User: Fold this.
Amino acid sequence: MAEEDNDDDNVWNALAVILDIDSESWADRSPLHDAACQGRLLALRTLILQGHNVNVSTIDHVTPLHEACIGHHVACARALIDAGANVNASTIDGVTPLFNACTVGSVACTEILLENGAKPQSLVYHPSPIHEATSKGHHGCVEALVSWGADVDMDIPHLGTALYTACICRELECARKLLREGANVQKGKSLDSPLHAAAEKDCTAVVNLLLDFGADINARNTEFQRPVDVAPPSSLTEGFLLLYEATPRLLSQLCRQCVRNCVGRDRLHLLAHLPLPNRVKSYLQHQ
Assistant:
């Protein structure tokens, strides 16, 4: 039996050498993981002072910082970062500490990570923090991500844009935040616009918001259907869209859309500094 155990160890060690794997990265759970997961700050600091590696990872490449962020343990996250934790560490599934923070809606962890160099945006085929925050209705995390440079129009093939996700998940405040920050009201998933998604979900509040930002009521998807065509029959949303079609647009609304389009997404923040009455500036900013 002892010889068999030695043979297994030899095979494992040989595999580690061939794949150039650091043996520490294959640790299952370290004391740092447990302390970070449970939010035990004193124990965490003690372990760090004893020289434990703050970037130790499990077989799935989960680090103590991942654990601190998914647990919304802000002080633990800060202690790990101050000790040199990699804020952009990625699991084998592409999940980062920032993604975890957005999953639980921890604005504090999100901001700490971003302030210390976390990338606000993932690669196209990796889990996206802004899509995750949007799907969960964590508009505070969405705001933090956008303020640190996340692209409000980031398009993931199987998800579409964050705005499309907000419409699918009926998250009104996240949709409002994205639109105010300049998200393209027409950009959804393939030819399905955000308005299609909101209409199909019978979310009249989101439909009204999208139309207020200039959504095209006549846009057609891959099946050549308009938003009103995908709304549930006899629903409140269908009735709202039919009434909207028959009602002329307000000149003030058309002017606001024109001004915002001319200013452009990258300069929308300058609207607050225009020499205009506060009421007009608020109107232009959809406040």
Remarks:
- The CA atoms of residues 260 and 267 lie 9 Å apart.
